[in-house]
Amino acid sequence: MTDKKFELTDLATGKKSTLDVKTPTIGPNVLNIAPLAKDHNVFTFDPGFMSTASCESKITYIDGDNGILLHRGIPIEQLAEKSNFLEVSYLLINGELPNGDQLKEFSHAIQYHTMLNESLLRFFNGFHYNAHPMAMLSGVVASMSAFYHDSMDINNPRHREIFAHRIIAKIPTIAAAAYKHSLGQPFIYPRNDLDYCSNLLNMFFSVPCENYQVDPVAAQALDLLFILHADHEQNASTSTVRLAGSTGTNPYSAISSGISALWGPAHGGANEAVLAMLEQIGTVDNITKYVAKAKDKNDNFRLMGFGHRVYKNFDPRATIIRGMCHKVLAKLGKSDNPLFELALRLEEVALKDEYFIERKLYPNVDFYSGVIYSALGIPRSMFTVMFAIARAVGWVAHWQEMIADPGMKIGRPRQLYTGSAKRDYVDISKRG
Ligand code: CMC
Predict the structure, then answer these.
(1) DSSP per residue, 71-111
(2) pTM of the full predicted structure?
């Protein structure tokens, strides 16, 4: 809190109230409106949370006007260049970079929690082969609450830690099981001798009848994509995890609700939608036509992978991924990638267009990620699952931060009621 204050006057009654201002470490000040309801019987109205900070957090900072993203204060560009996904996971959850022993211990805990209970694995037989993998992922993650309910006291820090390890370790196994189920192939058990991303690729692409060697270029590319997706402060899915978790529910259920929120095309589902859009556009010649459709208010078509609630400048993650596309495609011997060429050209056209310039619409993290996923052989329906694997770390970090806060309150927004005023029940015989 600072000595800065805001004064609010009810012009009808002349009643004045003083509101405190909370100062963040960096970023805009935050007006504390919590006393308004109690002192003045008035609520604030902010659909879509355009101006509302829903909580206090120390995990991630975004400056949308300048394209800055910091995790625990460290710029995403440095983490992308120098770190790896498990180290970033440790940083997000614990607040500091680990020393050598801490990283070894954390990595070991993740590596040795990768197996699923066999009963959980049998759940997949209940899904039709063409079930969307995000539906299977949210269903099976929610079911983990049935397996670990008795050993999950949310007020016990050690239980919370084990929960974190289990989620980060088992989500890739569940994702791979969903993929194998959709193909009708046998499930491949995790291998604890492999690093996080190599293990994931092995569970996805190996089959019992053949030798499969993980391509280290592919594992490294996936690790980098996971770093870029690991957290993004109070986005829709993280806010969903916090809201569900604020009731004290089993955290596996809270994570499952985050997976459901992520699935939508305005959020994590955009990576799948971008590829569908690029395939629909087909060739460079059609770009002008589709850009015109995106600008037409009578047409539902939007440029998927463009625009962001917070970034009104380049999304720094998109810049890193675009650079990465060039390198990874070259290393995989797939430089001649028509989808990437089309995406680059589309970006170029949109960024010169007055409509996109005026509204500050830039490519976001999802615009280029699908190009890399498809170059790695990951099918389009699995793209959002990949996002969920990485974002699970952010969800866990935010859930932990909220539960450990002694001032935690159940999330319970209010509303602007515009329905009927009080009226009497009418008997069915008297209704028109
Ligand atoms: N294509 C065309 N017009 C757009 C787009 C787009 N992708 N995005 C926003 N606009 C227009 C929108 O029509 C509106 O115009 P006007 O002021 O004339 O009514 C203006 O820009 C502001 O858009 P908004 O929908 O009010 O902005 P928002 O902050 O509520 O929505 C968004 C942000 C990301 C949902 C939106 O930009 C969008 O739908 N983008 C496409 C989906 C997408 O790529 N989502 C991934 C987001 S990043 C990763 C993640 O969060 O998981």
Answers:
(1) ETTEEHHHHHHH--HHHHHHHHHHSS---HHHHHHHHHHHH
(2) 0.95
